[in-house]
Amino acid sequence: MNKVIATVQNIEETDIVTYIHVNSGESAMYLIKSEKPKWLSVGDKVYCNFQEGSVCLSKDCPGKVSIENTLPVTLQNVRRNNSLCELTLNNSDFGDIISLITANAYDKLDLQEGCKATMLLRGIDIKLEPLLENLKVSSF
Questions:
Q1: Which residues, listed in sequence order, are joined to residue 69 by a DSSP beta bridge?
Q2: Interval 77-124: pLDDT, tens
Q3: Rounded CA gap, 48 and 101, in Å?
Q4: Per-residue pLDDT at 12 exceeds 80
Q5: Topology of the domain comprising 2-139
Q6: pTM of the model
Q7: What order of strands is seen across the sheet that includes strand 56-58?
Q8: pLDDT higher than threshold 60 for residue 140
Q9: Which has the closest alpha carbon to 23: 55, 52, 48?
Q10: Helix, strand or coil for residue 64?
Q11: What is the residue extent of each domain of the chain?
């Protein structure tokens, strides 16, 4: 499980979903939730958690995509077997992020340690957790 610390910048509630915009340094992520967590407010520090299998990768992302989160990363380390690759990606603001992709996808993308890539992550795949050290009990 990937766990990133971020600060809530904006919360937009619509009839159907809630959009939550968070930042860590200069990097931003966008989350989509069915409803706003009752404890969540703009300015809160939160953990953004997401599974390794939710992290997709592109080496040459050519233009617009339908995925909310596209972040520049550097491939730091690769652990590989016959079918899967565990990639350690680094984003200067979010730190190390782990991705699991097939060995076939790794080969097709012509990835190698040290290369630059784009991480893609759907906003619906990110779970929120309060950073308790900064949370006020009155928020509950």
A1: 121
A2: 999 999 999 999 999 899 999 999 999 999 999 999 999 999 999 999
A3: 21
A4: yes
A5: OB fold (Dihydrolipoamide Acetyltransferase, E2P) (2.40.50)
A6: 0.86
A7: 56-58, 116-121, 69-80, 84-91, 95-102
A8: no
A9: 48
A10: coil
A11: 2-139
